[in-house]
Predict the 3D structure of the following.
Amino acid sequence: MQTKKVIFTSLHQAEKLRPFPNSAIISINDCYESEANLHSGWSNISRFYFIDSDYTEESIRHFGDNARLVYDHHFTKSQALTMIFQIHQFINSGVDTIVVHCYAGRSRSAAVAKFISETFGFLPYNNVDAYHQNTVNFNSPNPIQVVTDFSRMNSLVYTLLKTPGYYDAVWREVIPTTPEPSAGNLAKLSRALLSIFKNTPSKITE
């Protein structure tokens, strides 16, 4: 039978893949300058730009007015909504294989793959060999394993995909006129971080 698959992998592996019919790719990059050089021919290519880090309600409150700058290059609610919309477009257009890549292929891409698997019923893999199989033979002596361990996934990405408004209340609490970080300004971010971290210890997870 035709198997709907979501495969998460690294930038290096994604750049080597040649698209099959009915396959789409979500390309996650740190910035425009480092985006993946993907082969043409995908049914759809959807690109996103955000770093591999996260935040919590507690850390947002910790930084207060500076939180917008500190987290300016993180995954946002607006990106989550755009990604969800585009995944729906993929599926409605007949896509049965979705590849998701980030730099290392284990954090940001894993979070997206888990969301797609849970929400749309796609079988998740982190082995690109699964991409080259139109069907999955579970009775094979060496079947490609469906992924069930997402322990290294980016928690912010997963949380916002599952519940895009999850952090709305705390953003309104600390910055009433700005519900979440928006388009970045690296110079401002760098100056803010230098000022904040000089005297205030903090933790930003990866």
Summary: The radius of gyration is 18 Å. The beta strands are 5-10, 23-29, 44-49, 97-102, 123-125. The mean pLDDT is 85.
